[in-house]
Amino acid sequence: MSKFVDQPTIFDRSSWSLEQIVEHFEAERSRQLRRGRFVQLLQVLVITGLFGGAFQASGFFSSYLGDGAIGRIANFLSRLFPHLQPDRLFEDRATSGSLLYWLYDLNLWLKLLAETVQIAIVATVLGAVLALPLSFLAARNLTPARWIYWTVRRTSELVRTLPDIIVALILVAAFGLGPIPGVIALTLGTAASLTKLFAEANEAADMHQLEALQSAGGNWWQQLRFGLIPQVLPNLASYSLLRLEINVGGAAALGIVGAGGIGVELSRAITFTEFDTYFALLLLTVGLIFVFDLTSEAVRDRLIGAEKAA
Amino acid sequence: MIVQLDLIERATLIAPNSVYLPWLNRFGRWICWMIAVILFVGMCHNLDLSFDVLSRGFTKLGTLTKTMFPPFANGAELKILQALLVTFAMALSGTVLGIIVALPLGVIGAKNVVRNSVIHFVVRRTLDILRGVPVLVWALVMISAFGLGPIAGVIALALADFPHLAKQFAEALENSDTRPPQGILASGGNRLEAIRLGLLPQVVPVMASQSLYTLESNFRHAAILGVVGAGGIGFELEERIRIFAFDQVAWIVVAYVMSVTLLDWLSNQMRSRLV
User: Can you tell me the distance from the alpha carbon of B22 to that of A133, in angstroms, rounded to the nearest whole number?
Assistant: First the structure.
């Protein structure tokens, strides 16, 4: 019975009668229940207030959506889908209702998709190359000094706090419109996040192999090259590929602030209210990301499989 | 008679490929590296990533950075903090809406709750497809439907979140232990009591922790959504970058980074209590 009373008793209960014990237990239990209910009520009140305030502040209740907001969404949706006509699907682009009329600038879009992929690949490669040396400094078992570890870790956290889009927005002001601010923004984000992931892979590595090389007379570089890298390489490659997947999506989105790639056309289509064009671009982008994800997932599975087999 | 050989020679005799790769393999590797480097350089060329352009850009970035210091809000401190609050309110409302939509879908999508494999398949695949649409795309759609303002951002966040949350909720339900509810049923409890006392205590902490993660990431996303016109801190930031007021940009960025750190810390504290 004493397990229900969590407070240690300061007086001896061995001389109590059964009635006394039961009475004490009931009193204690109802006291705890009452306190629990009060705390719960308080929590519910505070949380309801917070949610109410949040919905109020974000204009959820007060937003005037105009008359027929539903109608507007329906109108928007009807303009989103192309008005294809089955009988002239394969006519040239001047005919309304044909596929080419819908995808009227397909060559440019494919070129921009290629640019998006290139931005992602270049940024991932540059980011990974930057992150590799930094990850040695940010791994607790390899870092030359405690303060270097601390500085690299905190800097990478700080950079990861900033969204890529905001970095790109500032870089567009410096570099002008075009793919370069996109590449640099993604490189920064990639370097920061890969530094952390690589460093964690380094920390999980078996140090005995490095010690064996050291005892055989290997210097610092040889220890890393032949003791550490073979252990962590499959992980690093897998993380880089994962980041590449993220960067393809990121590169597509960065175009919206003018940093090159398919996003430029996406935001142009929205600005000119060409919603069917927007839908076409969206399909192309989602398709690209989908294909990219599948390929990279297959490669990553093989990498990790190779590591497990080894 | 034992011929004393050098260590490396001995190893080469026993396993020829262990010490030196055959020249064909080495040549193949070398070719692969060359192709990769040529491709990379070609891509850099396509993207105009030349040293000249970069040095000019970084010089300009240097002058811009100089105007960032000291960060100065120009009397708009209250307005910026208010925008931060609106961003947080957007994130919170979006998360709550997302949770409300995700809860029933998560329950339907859990294999151990709804045993019909057709429903399970349809729900899960639909969620998979919806997960592919990024939040920024939802925001652009919602802005063209609802007009500029935070409400578009809230709905975009909720739409982007609920497929993720529903999947995580379904997985939490699937990973739960079936014995506690069975025990309650066996000792005479009804189905409702079995769920309330046997199932929920297992899954609620997991769901709450995932919802907190969602809230954290939504705060970052909400800041981005402002850039495309969904109100909040991103809107203020974009406005000031457009007029090159970089001292105010720096102030906003510092305030934003601090609030993100604070929110992450708070949510970490709450999560460590939950789990």
Answer: 30
pLDDT of B1 reads 44
pLDDT tens-digit readout, B95-115: 999 999 998 888 888 887 777
Q: Which ranges in chain B belong to alpha helices (H)?
A: 7-14, 16-19, 23-46, 51-68, 77-109, 117-131, 135-146, 150-174, 179-186, 191-193, 200-227, 233-242, 246-274
CA distance A58 to A241: 37
Residues A125, A123: Cα–Cα separation, whole Å: 6
Neighbours of B83 (CB within 10 A): 24
Residue B236 scores a pLDDT above 50: yes
In whole angstroms, give the CA distance from residue A249 to residue A251: 6
Mean pLDDT (whole number) for B15-43: 83
CB contact under 8 A, A275 and B92: no
CB contact under 8 A, A161 and B137: no
Q: Which residues of chain A does B133 touch, with a Cβ-Cβ cutoff of 8 Å?
A: 282, 286
Q: B155 φ, ψ to 5°?
A: -70, -40
Q: Chain B contacts of A253, Cβ < 8 Å?
A: 134, 136
Instruction: State the DSSP code for A206.
Output: -
Residues 6+ apart with CB under 8 A from B99: B162, B165, B211, B214
Q: What is the full DSSP assignment across B158-211?
A: HHHHHHHHHHHHHHHHHTS-SHHHHHHHHTT--HHHIIIIIIHHHHHHHHHHHH
Does the predicted interface ipTM exceed a cut of 0.90? no
**Cβ A55–B43 below 8 Å, yes or no?**
no
Each residue's pLDDT tens digit, B184-215: 999 988 888 888 888 888 888 888 888 998 99
Residue B195 Cα distances to A295, B114, B119, B170, B207, angstroms: 41, 14, 21, 15, 15
Classify B134 as helix, strand or coil. Answer: coil
